[in-house]
Amino acid sequence: MENTLGLEIIEVVEQAAIASAKWMGKGEKNIADQVAVEAMRERMNKIYMRGRIVIGEGERDDAPMLYIGEEVGICTQPNAEALCNPDELVEIDIAVDPCEGTNLVAYGQPGSMAVLAISEKGGLFAAPDFYMKKLAAPPAAKGKVDINKSATENLKILSECLERSIEELVIVVMKRERHNDLIKEIREAGARVALISDGDVGAAISCGFAGTNIHALMGIGAAPEGVISAAAMRALGGHFQGQLIYDPAVVKTGLIGESREANIDRLKSMNINDPDKVYDAHELASGKTVLFAACGITSGNLMNGVRFFNGGARTQSLVISNQSKTARFVDTIHMFGEPKTLQLN
Ligand SMILES: O=C(COP(=O)(O)O)[C@@H](O)[C@H](O)[C@H](O)[C@H](O)COP(=O)(O)O
Ligand SMILES: [Mn+2]
Ligand SMILES: [Mn+2]
């Protein structure tokens, strides 16, 4: 699965990022999102694979494209056996977020990316459209920090694992009212807080690399993004835990259904009978093969954003594989038509 797909999915995220980047700074988050979805879908459908979207843009009725359950790839066609070899006919599950950080793109802010994760069928947790409490940390702290512990305790553990004082730690938290107490606790414990407005996938993955100056992600974001982050962290060997949040009173903002009770019933209807279960990266991305790909739309900690020049664009992507144990940064120049120059910088 991996050999051919690893290369193809780079182009999938690149095309989505380029399309979205054309809308950077225009204040049009829905268009920046929509063009990324269209570009991602178009490129995916050129791949010899038999893919199914398990995390996408929502249910079929609401989302015209890349909806949950949508089949993508050449080998989903009725005559697939004539077109595809046995490897390509293996069913694979795909989680996508074509524009992660739509607000960041619309307002020209750093940290947006086109992103996806792939595994064999059943290898990615089909997260409901709920919130998720998340804890991401570097590989050195894997299995040592714990989402059930307080932020203060986790900071002590992180400090030991990373051989740094608590004061040297930087913890990313989304700037939301629901995090006011968490932010206070982290600061009182002595660590530093980097607040982000959006884009917790990039923040989670940044914990996987030393040199990003991000040592943990704490707090509540969206569950689908949690699964995509978990796929990357599983392949990187970093720490990731997630716990679904189904109580509207906890998140304080956002659409999360009518009531706690109604949400528990909804989870049960999805065969999630223990709504408080804590999932680790291996449960959220349980497949034997896990591939992750992202391409920067606007520049962030991990990747440069799309840079256009006369006749082309340059992109930077990241592909992580648990099989080849690689985190590969890919730098690509895209030629639109016949450019007069190929701009390096
Ligand atoms: O910032 C985010 C927005 O993602 P997108 O809609 O694809 O641009 C995500 O990274 C967050 O995980 C998440 O969606 C968010 O925390 C939930 O929204 P909010 O209610 O504003 O906190
Ligand atoms: Mn997102
Ligand atoms: Mn998105």
From TrEMBL:
Enumerate the Gene3D superfamilies for this protein.
Answer: 3.40.190.90, Fructose-1,6-Bisphosphatase, subunit A, domain 1
Which pathway is it part of? Carbohydrate biosynthesis; Calvin cycle
For this protein, the record's CDD domains field holds: FBPase_glpX
Write the record's keywords in alphabetical order, separated by commas: Calvin cycle, Carbohydrate metabolism, Hydrolase, Manganese, Metal-binding
For this protein, the Enzyme Commission number is 3.1.3.11, 3.1.3.37
Keyword Hydrolase present in the record's keywords: the answer is yes
Q: Which SUPFAM superfamilies match?
A: Carbohydrate phosphatase
Class of this enzyme:
hydrolase
Catalytic reactions on record: D-sedoheptulose 1,7-bisphosphate + H2O = D-sedoheptulose 7-phosphate + phosphate; beta-D-fructose 1,6-bisphosphate + H2O = beta-D-fructose 6-phosphate + phosphate
Q: Name one Pfam family in it.
A: FBPase_glpX
Which superkingdom does the taxonomy of this entry point to?
Answer: Bacteria
Q: Which GO terms describe its molecular function?
A: fructose 1,6-bisphosphate 1-phosphatase activity
Q: Does the keyword Ribosomal protein apply?
A: no
Q: Provide the function of this protein.
A: Catalyzes the hydrolysis of fructose 1,6-bisphosphate (Fru 1,6-P2) and sedoheptulose 1,7-bisphosphate (Sed 1,7-P2) to fructose 6-phosphate and sedoheptulose 7-phosphate, respectively.
* Entry's family note: Belongs to the FBPase class 2 family.
> How does this chain assemble?
Homotetramer.
User: Which protein, by its recorded name, is this?
Assistant: D-fructose 1,6-bisphosphatase class 2/sedoheptulose 1,7-bisphosphatase
